[in-house]
Design a protein that fits this description.
The chain is α+β, with helices and mostly antiparallel strands. The chain is 14% helix and 14% strand. The chain binds iron/sulfur cluster.
Length: 116
């Protein structure tokens, strides 16, 4: 599963720098696949299935609180023993997204595709 941030987020910003995939953005921020990854040209999101130019700005997933891009979230698999956002969040609002279920193998594949 990917991780999501609930609307209980207090916008402290502690999680953003901890993400090894640069999958976390402040509410209202445009995001790019190229941010903090090694992807070039076009990339097809492993979760969304949508192909876009990696440099194109994408629509924020939330306007009010920090958000996590599922296509970039590997639950820190391949980097750390546990999701770092959840580890540092002071209000425990980084939780598993039950709508985005992925195996360890799929998360490792996603990581490999983002960090080439
Ligand atoms: Fe929001 Fe938690 Fe991230 Fe702080 S650490 S910005 S409360 S999700």
């Amino acid at each position: 599963m990917a991780i999501i941030i609930t609307d209980e987020c207090i916008n402290c910003g502690a999680c953003e720098p901890e993400c090894p995939n640069n999958a976390i953005y402040e509410g209202g921020a445009e995001w790019r696949y190229a941010d903090g990854t090694g992807v070039k040209g076009n990339y097809t999101g492993k979760n969304s299935g949508v192909e876009v130019s990696v440099e194109d700005p994408q629509t924020p997933k939330s306007m009010d609180v920090y958000f996590i891009v599922s296509d970039k979230c590997t639950e820190c698999v391949g980097f750390h023993d546990e999701p770092q956002c959840a580890a540092v969040c002071p209000v425990d609002c980084c939780i598993k997204d039950v709508d985005v279920v992925e195996t360890n193998e799929q998360l490792l594949e996603k990581k490999a595709s983002l960090h080439i």
